[in-house]
Amino acid sequence: MKIFTALSELPREFADAPAFLCVGNFDGAHRGHRALFRAAKEAAAASGGVCGALTFEPHPEIFFRGPDAVKLIYPPATKRELLARAGLDFVVSAPFTGEFAAVAAEDFAARLKRALPSLAGLFVGENFRFGARRRGDAALLRESAARVGVKAHTLAPVLFGGEKISSSRIRACLAAGETAAANAMLGEPYFAAGTVVSGNRLGRTIGFPTLNLEWRPALLPRFGVYAVRLIRARGDGASEVFRGVANYGVRPTVARDGVPAPLLETHVTDVPAGVPVPTYGDSIVVEWLDFLREERRFDSVAALREQLVRDVAAARERGTANFRE
Fold it and tell me: Are the CB atoms for 45 and 37 separated by under 8 Å?
């Protein structure tokens, strides 16, 4: 699947077939978003058409509020990867500009239709807002889309625990260390991806070597210790999977020279037979399965080591329910 920066870039096989388009920011590509994708895919299959997603970079709130804007669950590149895995035929990641922000809500659907003449259906959440000053709502979208021959579908929210799943709710859960709830709403474990880099190697001296990840998220999850699943892709397309326990934070027991940048350190607790442990330079994914405890300072490295023994046991016990080979 290819990613485009404008609807007008779509190749002929997409531009000529009836097109069904999901529109939104899709931060996290959570279960609510996936319900939209499923509906669009079903409509496309029924008509012999194609389905895709239209999203925006930067996130509109970042465009308007800058540094004070919401911190995103995943960076744009990861969001595009998640959308690519959703089974859509295409994704358009369009620039959010001042010109686009000024488009009148009444003209929004017509503008999309001009850019993609084969547009047959739009799919949005029932609380979707659009157009200048966010004046557009679901009712206006249905009305204005119908005028240009497009059917607008507004889907009811997907619920978790009796409440609507939303990106903002997932962000709050991650910040609070409510990892299991965040994962349930995402539909898969929250993850960090990056390259293993060298650290100060203190872990090796106390029997707990760690893999340090080069990872700088906009949204900082709660500092603490987590049960995790570590994945390393192989060249043949398969993956190697490891159980582990990770600390995310500023390492108050061993940090020197002020407060360092937060670091994700993963200790592999269980290694499949015959599989080498990841090392420096490897690209890995760390899936966060469960929050174990908050990060805290210990009086000595010996006390830290004693706690790490307990953390490994807790990770094996509490991570098992969410672990898949």
Answer: no
Amino acid at 5: T
Q: Is the dihedral of CA 137, 139, 140, 141 positive or negative?
A: positive
Please work out, in degrees rounded to the nearest 5, the angle formed at the alpha carbon of residue 182 by the alpha carbons of 179 and 186.
135
How far is C-alpha 212 from the chain's CA centre? 21
Give which of 145, 154, 136 is closest to 114, Cα–Cα.
145
pLDDT at 325: 39
Compute the distance between CA of residue 151 and CA of residue 169 in angstroms, rounded to an integer.
Answer: 30
Tell me the backbone φ, ψ of residue 324, rounded to 5 degrees: -130, 135
Structure tokens at 27: 């931060």
Token pair in block for residue 185: 């709403």
- Distance, in Å, from the CA atom of 30 to the CA atom of 213, rounded to the nearest integer, reads 24
Distance CA 192, CA 189 (A): 10
Mean pLDDT by 10 residues, the chain (325 residues): 87 88 96 97 96 94 91 94 93 94 96 95 95 94 98 96 97 97 97 88 75 91 96 85 93 64 92 89 95 90 90 84 47
N-term to C-term CA, the chain: 27
Question: If you search the block for the tokens 């990867």, which residue do you land on?
Answer: 81
- Alpha-carbon span 283 to 194, nearest angstrom: 6
130, two tokens: 């659009």
Distance from C-alpha of 244 to C-alpha of 269, rounded to nearest angstrom? 5
Task: Retrieve residue 213's tokens.
Answer: 């990840």
Contact 240, 275 (CB under 8 A): yes
CA-wise closest residue to 192 among 159, 155, 229, 146: 229
Strands 239-249 and 263-270: antiparallel
Q: Say what the pLDDT of residue 214 is.
A: 78
109, 167, 170: which is closest to 140 by C-alpha? Answer: 109
What is the DSSP track for 37-59? Answer: HHHHHHHHHHHT-EEEEEEEES-
